[in-house]
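Section 5.1 Outputs to date
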Amino acid sequence: MNLPEKMRAMVTMGHGGLEQMQLHADWPRPSPKAGEVLIRVGACGLNNTDVNTRSGWYSKAVTDATTGDAFDTVSEDDPTWGGNPITFPRIQGADVCGHIVAVGDGVDPVRIGERVITDNWLRDESDPDNKDKTGYFGSECDGGFAEYTVIRASNTVAVQSDLSDAELATFSCSYSTAEGMLTRAKVTDKDTVLVPGASGGVGGAVVQLAKRRGARVIALASEAKHGDVAALGADMVLPRGPDDLRAALGKEKITVVADVVGGPYWPNLIDILERGGRYTCSGAIAGPMVEFDLRTFYLRDLTFTGSTVIDPEVMANLVRYIEAGDIRPALAATYPLEDLREAQATFIAKKHTGNIVVTP
């Protein structure tokens, strides 16, 4: 196959606002090294990690809520998920769906032509369970906001599905994050799970994946999105932040809170957990700094788990769920690559339900 030497790519030039993303029409196309594959990108999902890495929000120097704008002070030592430095220019974008069009040494050429989605955690292949030896696709290395991208062959999962590339590009980050949270919290069919921010990509995935486990799901979302969230399978949908959450829940007994929101409302979430309940967190879009009463924590025998690096088998499991029709995409909108700034602005505004995807 004759492949072009150049490609279109949206390149992030440094920490800051939307202006840091610049479209290049003649960016060098990457070539796969040993153990890698070259993917012609069909679609790439947009996630909070793209916004937060660009803005530098992951840095401990930042204590504000996610805004998508530039921050006055960003430490250059810890502005990524893994707390590592990031180098620019960088092609962001992690949730790739596309076709393998070339392979590097050591990769079976039979894989050329496969339709794949990406497993975005870049693990040490000799020590895959070591969380200290991980990076993230589109963060510590270039990702999928381009016509082509390279990734290790072991980080691609073949998928057989009638879903479009854009629909499949909603799964890798949001759904793996959600499944990781539910796994850490050991959610079963005996649980009732409260999901703040249920209209977002991760929140909506938590709703579906918790229901798949047989749990009862109570969702929090703005009232304009209640119909969309209910369609994902939530058993009850409440306003985003009820003044009296305990009263709003009625007789519901919450055993698990699966949270990506945080912020000022956070103490209310902890106060309604049943004794022995579990809180699992993989985000803090409303603000990372919260008021925490240790007495509630220990007197109620609560368990808190953070969830970032997912277990290696999660992506293979998600593809099985996709192919079996157990979970479905929540695709809010699709934008062409050149409109990625507009797509991010829409994403940041949070007026949509589900995921936003770009196509090259």
